[in-house]
Write a structure and sequence with these properties.
The protein has helices spanning about 5-10, 40-50, 60-70, 85-95, 110-120, 135-145, 165-170, 195-200, 230-240, 245-255, 260-280, 305-315, 345-355; strands at about 25-30, 80, 100-105, 125-130, 150-155, 175-180, 205-210, 225, 285, 295-300, 315-325, 335-340. By secondary structure, the protein is an alpha/beta fold. The chain has 2 domains: about 5-30 and about 260-355, Aspartate Aminotransferase, domain 1 (Alpha-Beta Complex); about 40-260, 3-Layer(aba) Sandwich (Aspartate Aminotransferase, domain 2). The strands form 2 sheets. Strands 2-8-7-6-5-3-4 form a 7-stranded mixed β-sheet, with helices on both faces. It has a 5-stranded mixed β-sheet with strand order 1-11-12-10-9, with helices on both faces. The relative contact order is 0.16. It binds pyridoxal-5'-phosphate. The site of pyridoxal-5'-phosphate has 13 residues, from α4.
Length: about 350
Amino acid sequence: MSLFRPELDRIAGYVPGEQPQDSGWTKLNTNENPYPPSPRVIEAITDTARGRLNMYPDPLGTAFRRAAAEVCEVEPDWILPGNGSDEVLTILTRSFAGPNDQIAFPYPSYILYETLADLQGAKHERLPLEPDWSWDFNKVIPIVERSKLVFVPNPNSPSGNRWTWDDLVSLTPRRGMLVLDEAYGDFADAPHRGELLNSTLGKQIVITRTFSKSYSLAGIRFGFAIAHPSIIAGLRKMKDSYNCDAISLAAATAAIQDQDWMKSNTTRIRATRERLTSALVKIGFHVVPSQTNFVWATHPSGEHKAQYDALRAKKILVRYMSFPDVAWANQGRLDGLRITIGTDSEIDLLLDALNGIV
Ligand SMILES: Cc1ncc(COP(=O)(O)O)c(C=O)c1O
């Protein structure tokens, strides 16, 4: 007999990408940044560790919110810090979706949204993507209108494409919330635009961002939401009092204050991304033009699992992904390789290996 809630017993649980704990891997599987964080971050962590670890951290993250507000061109009461953007997504799910509410999200996309809906005991429905990763609005709008909460990662994972603001606006439910998950937004060629938050839809839109990717801080666990102060005030009731610790708050504050460091790393990653894309195309892969720090590559042979295994045998880790129930894919299952953009030498290693495999 299980004493767990049936919602929990029914699901397998979210399985994150592999994090090998031994050395020697070329790790291109979970979209981390291959470059180190700003030296200012290390200084801030050291100062905090020497300072007041015996005291609880600031429950509101005041210093971080001020720094983030400046970068995002809003007031600090538009910002909610979280223990990774995944925690922010959890807070949003728990805040807006009751058992009779529906959550919608694109498919194929970030699988966590479905797990969060299952854990919450909410209903959920997928917003199917077309073969070119666009929307057929005749298909998806009725689903959006049945939903209370819509999650859209922009740019998307695993495809790496970015949708236009007009497309996104149409995905706002008439009586519900649209969450734009901008985990990869800093890698896009055009900068973020926050106008939506100031539009008439402003109280129905939340933007989430992470420090795990562009700021090179996956090990710290920090993300945040940007939304109208009335939304942030509601979300605050749902979060743990001290959801962000003193070290991560100090690290994130220092990181966001060093925009030059972040931008110089994202510029390098974008250049490597273009080089990897052309090289993969040359050896026969189809690659979706990416606006992120990864590419989605598929090969006409369909041998993605074998390619993944062969790379893994050489200690090169990419992400093999397989999505069932994709109507337009071969035998209804879309699979492929999602490859994180590493340093130039890591990408050379990958390409050398792939040349021998494909
Ligand atoms: C689309 C998307 N959103 C959110 C996250 C989670 O980021 P965090 O590390 O801030 O929890 C990821 C992580 O890979 C992601 O791919």
